[in-house]
Design a protein that fits this description.
The structure is a homodimer.
Chain A: H1 8-26, E1 31-32, H2 34-41, H3 45-53, E2 65-66, H4 67-78, E3 84-89, H5 93-100, H6 103-106, E4 109-116, E5 132-134, H7 138-144, E6 149-152, H8 156-168, E7 173-176, E8 189-192, H9 195-210
Parallel strand pairs in A: 3-4, 3-6, 4-5, 6-7, 7-8
Antiparallel strand pairs in A: 1-2
Chain A binds a DNA duplex through α3.
Function (chains A, B): Modulates transcription in response to changes in cellular NADH/NAD(+) redox state.
Family (chains A, B): Belongs to the transcriptional regulatory Rex family.
Pfam family, one (chains A, B): CoA_binding
Chain lengths: ~210, ~210
DNA sequence: TGGTGTGAACAACTTCACAGCG
DNA sequence: CGCTGTGAAGTTGTTCACACCA
């Protein structure tokens, strides 16, 4: 259980496993073997077993894994056995889509505060209940509402400055939707959700194929 | 220039490089060294040089890379020296945000057809001009409009079936926003944009840190 | 018997370090 | 002299193959 040497990819896969297990659970399937789980996630069966083995011995030899139990363990590992308080910065089309995204609250991710720079938007109340704060209130609100994760949905031009403010306000983790590589100090985490990079990958492969 | 052994991560980084180079170009910076470019992308300088070396010798020893020239080459490699015809399936909040996303057309990615399953939406015209087609028209429209990339923004429950229809209609590449691992046959490509997986990564690291 | 858990083999990717060239 | 291009070394992640155990 040496955390430091766990591959980042393992964590990503745990997330996939948990999703599949949720589905199995609601289909009333109680036991699953690494082969089946692997297939559903598009990975190698040995990979599944190794990923899980980093954190303990959750399976039963000759049988497989108990779905409910394994799901519980994975959620505990990922920190999904609790809720997470998030702030959203940038209430454009994407921001609104994120607020409306039903998977977030289902997994315990809650937007407890939202911000925008546009004075015309500040003060308005969203259908989901939150009042839009101005960026100048960011520090105060983040601290007051004990926000742990910042979600940046601003234009690229404002993303870096926004990240700075979030970090200064005490946020440790950022989910960045802006198409820019954000620079952050040691000890903080950024995950990027980058549509165009993904599209560029597709374009590349389509281009290669045609050659 | 053996395409088969180019790391997937290299392609992703090329996409980042192109973005940074665009920015440099509009700042009228003509030459950049691998150190600087690497720093802006958060990678190792040797990595930058190696990535580029897969595709040719674009630099000048003792000098660096000419921004304009390098950008041109990278865009050619990625297939960004042309436009790409895309279809969007699922006109919910996320779908609308994608349509409004200004970076897509800027990079040559165009939504030339949009689809939804909801009869109340079918036939309506979007502000961006497209008329919403029903899913039953998918095969016909995809072929007629020569669509190359399918973008899935449906609920998870419909994503697999949608992928199937796209592939049957001749689409080779899919950008999937639904939180599910889509199964596709050999020779097709899927890229997943997965918000919750990214959030789970953040939650994991925050949880670890606290231990 | 059948599927997990795991060391050992393998494969992939990254970084180093320096030769080579403008 | 300075920065690229690149073999070689190092690191990280994946797959194999089988001992082990319910």
């Amino acid at each position: 259980m040496k955390f430091s040497k766990i591959p980042a990819a393992t964590i990503t896969r745990l997330s996939l496993y948990s999703r599949v297990l949720e589905e199995l659970l609601s289909s009333h399937i109680n036991i699953i073997a690494s082969d089946k789980l692997a297939q559903k996630c598009g990975v190698n069966p040995a990979q599944v077993r190794k990923d899980l083995a980093y954190f303990g011995e959750f399976g039963v030899r000759g049988v497989g894994y108990f779905v409910k139990e394994l799901l519980f363990e994975i959620k505990k590992i990922l920190g999904l056995n609790r809720s997470w308080r998030m702030a959203l910065i940038g209430i454009g089309n994407l921001g609104l889509a994120l607020i409306a995204h039903e998977n977030f609250p289902k997994q315990g991710y809650e937007f407890v505060a939202v911000f925008d720079i546009d004075p015309k938007k500040v003060g308005r109340r969203l259908p989901s209940g939150q009042i839009i704060h101005g960026i100048d209130e960011l520090d105060e609100v983040i601290k007051e509402k004990k926000i742990e994760i910042g979600v940046i949905a601003t234009p690229a031009s404002q993303a870096q400055a926004t990240a700075r403010r979030l970090i200064d306000a005490g946020v440790k983790a950022i989910l960045n939707f802006a198409p820019i590589q954000i620079q952050i100090p040691e000890g903080f985490i950024v995950e990027n959700v980058d549509f165009t990079v993904k599209l560029d990958n597709l374009a590349y492969h389509l281009t290669m194929e045609a050659v």
